[in-house]
Amino acid sequence: MTKVAVLKGGRSLERQISLKSGARVAAALERNGHDVESIDVGGDLVERLQQFGPDVAFVALHGHDGEDGTVQELLEILGLPYTGSGVLACIRSMDKVLTKHLLREAGIPTPEFFAFNETAFRELGAADVLPAIEQRLDFPIVVKPASMGSALGIKFARTASDVPSALAAAFAYDAKVLLERHVQGRDLAVSVLDSGEGPMALPIVEAVPDSEDFYDYAARYEIGHTTFECPADLPAEVTERAQEHALAVWRLLDCAGFARIDLMLDVDGELQVLEANAIPGLTETSLLPQAAEAAGIELDELVGRIVELALAAGPAPAAAGKPA
Amino acid sequence: MTIDDDQHAGGRGPKRRDERGGMGPTRGRGGTTSRDLRRYAGLFASRTRVMKSSAMRDLFALTERPEVISLAGGLPDTSTFPPETFAAATAQIATTSCAKALQYGPTEGLEEAKERIVEVMAADGMSVDRDDMIVTTGGQQVIDLVTKTLIDPGDVVVAEAPTYPGAVPVFSSYQADVVQIDMDSDGMRIDLLEETLDRLEREGRTPKFIYTVPSFHNPAGVTMSLPRRKRLVEVAHERELLVLEDNPYSLLRYEGEPLPTLHSLDGGVYVMYLGTFSKIFSPGIRVGWVLAPPPVLEKINLGKQAVDLCSSTLSQLMVDAYFEQANWRDYIDSLTTIYRSRRDTMLDALAEFFPREAEWTRPAGGLFIWATLPDFVDTTDLLAHALRDNVAFVPGEAAYLDGRGRSSMRLNFSGSDEDTVREGVRRIGKVVREYVALYGTLTGEHKTPAPAAEVEPSAPEAGARIVRLPRRAERPRRADRG
Fold this sequence. Notes:
The structure holds 2 protein chains of 2 kinds. Chain A is an alpha+beta fold. Chain A is 37% helix and 23% strand. Chain A folds into 3 domains: 3-83 and 312-320, Rossmann fold (3-Layer(aba) Sandwich); 112-181, Dna Ligase, domain 1 (2-Layer Sandwich), CATH 3.30.1490; 183-302, D-amino Acid Aminotransferase, Chain A, domain 1 (2-Layer Sandwich), CATH 3.30.470. In chain A, strands 8, 9, 10, 11, 12 and 13 form a 6-stranded antiparallel β-sheet that branches. Chain A has a 4-stranded antiparallel β-sheet with strand order 4-7-5-6, with helices on both faces. A 3-stranded parallel β-sheet of chain A has the order 2-1-3, with helices on both faces. In chain A, a hairpin with a 4-residue loop joins strand 12 (258-266) and strand 13. Chain B has 2 domains: 55-76 and 331-480, Aspartate Aminotransferase, domain 1, CATH 3.90.1150.10; 103-324, 3-Layer(aba) Sandwich (Aspartate Aminotransferase, domain 2), CATH 3.40.640.10. Chains A and B meet through helix 1, helix 6, helix 8, strand 10 and strand 11 of A and helix 1, helix 2, helix 13 and helix 14 of B.
């Protein structure tokens, strides 16, 4: 019987969703016959891990600390195998600005953007370049915190006068924000799962706003305003392209286990990658489990596979090999 | 990252593209499947579509972390309740009324409990008859039962702006059209109320009732003045409109003279009254009550039968046993003393730590202060920053159904000790000042807030906001209070 520590909760603003993801994962692991201990991560994390002595840690954390490589680093020092992406892939995907720079460099399309730290405005007078940015990106402009999950802190500036308050709001979530060209079109999510023989793109999920003339990017994610369809009703060629993009992003960031790539299909039929999620939600209504299900992989099997991959990979080489 | 979560239930049913037909249960080894979720989405009543979840609600998950100071709750402090009093009450019930305590009771409530309610209301200057009341499962149930009794989808409820955040989901779930009336430091603006009623009348719409918290308003912290109380009752009589007076806090007065309730001014003709033991004894026992005109009360009774048959008999006997002893007022006095100094601590801390652009109410009782920031501050976003600094408050939008209130916040002072209140306000103040300063640099105005020592009270006209309140003309000073 494999001993699995499920890490959930924590200090992130996405704590609530993580608690749900973690509970669902733990239940699935128990059904699979594993010895499971759920840990709401906090100051006693290392202590609790040492007490329980798991064979593997299932990282069901979202947002800061859990999805940005921090917990992964800790687990590597402890020599514990863990699920999902490694430290570097987490760092690359958690920071949308870094992701987008990497995408741009690799020639994978992503909406045009500019990113700033708070200090740029506080100390370097970055406000003076806002008009130039506004001209470059055209209104409406999407303003988002660099590292925040879900729709948290995402604002939609329609005019120049909206920009300062949108930026101030985004900075409430993160010290770095990005201003991004708004892409009008269809909102697609491609989940990717390691099949054991390499990454495999799952059926695409589309977020469909209920109202036809829906416009507001932030409101799009409000409960009750969006329906998710899987598999998305797309021409085979578009599906294939989107999945290829997702796999390219997976390889670029060096993801492992599972991940979700979000894209827009613009009105000209072009695909643009918005971001990658190293630890996408695993709740009952989350997209990755839905996509897996559409591919014939039920939750228990999905969770089981993710754990097996982590066990097969073993502890990270840094801990196993190199001297401290 | 998780844009995906929690977002299905309210949506329209998507096209079903899976192969499996039928509506049989699919909950198997793997737990709830996405097909189940689609099936549930098709089952949910239309009223659940307006029962919304929100980013704000998810953020509150963090307040359960021990390092987070939460000024977001509405909790009374139950830590000073004497355990021996509790033990004596339960022992007495066990000895004298064991079988009764374990049995169902009448829907309208036990006579013993109603008698105690009459006594407590007498202490609050009201004279009522046992037969005009129903004992409920907390005050919250009163809002639900009254709304259930009176509101068809689309009917108008008039409420204050801001209104009690806990009433918002009730009104939403009955699909009420809530019209919110601005307040100032004297409570609901009755002139605006009358204008609104005129407008509604021109539109051929009559509100089913007016919902108000006249004393120590939650969340606004203000109290309706006597002239306005009188005028509101007159308006109710002139227009034959029902009013629901929600009065949980009136015995928690820290200064000034008690004001007559709307119910006593009206004599119970148009004013329905909500009372509760939550703030003067215990929220855990869940006992409240409602007074209403007999025909309304009859329907409320039927509604309550449907909901829970009767309120907890054990809890009602607890009320009886506890209020039977003569010194129950001492406990309220001790609570009042504790809360008064916590309020003072919060007012002092606000003056010290909040930027000059902020304004806030100065409640003479109750549990809450309502603070309003410059209108470019979104307090829901600010909460995210505050949580990073381990402190929480209720963003103002929770108190509105029309999207207003986004630059205000509700602060609770009753649930934390003085050091915690002060530290909590200090942390929020820091976050607010950073936000304001950053906005200044973003707009090129560089309006960095001055340190507290240099803060001067702002001009009264500078802060026309959602609740129009006096600026800090009377800065709180401890020496002023005896």
